[in-house]
User: Fold Exodeoxyribonuclease 7 small subunit from Brevibacillus antibioticus.
Amino acid sequence: MARKKTEQETDMQFEDAMKRLEEVVNRLEEGDIPLEEAITLYQEGVTLSRICGQKLDAIEAKITQLVEEDGQVKQKAFRVEGES
Assistant:
């Protein structure tokens, strides 16, 4: 069952999600936190990672490349090398 995005998740900027994800990872790496807190942080980290991935996918879809073919400049959708 798909989970609905919270309003906070939808409005979160990439940079904010990434910063909070780094804080969560650092806290988890400290290793001296209670299990329940670690699980909560882990779940938050997964959510933040998903938000960052979705934001990057959306931005990638908006990027176009200008390429020169046959002496003319054309727009093409941006593709990461190695992806089809």
In short: Helices lie at 7-11, 14-30, 35-62. The beta strands are 64-69, 72-77. The mean pLDDT is 85.
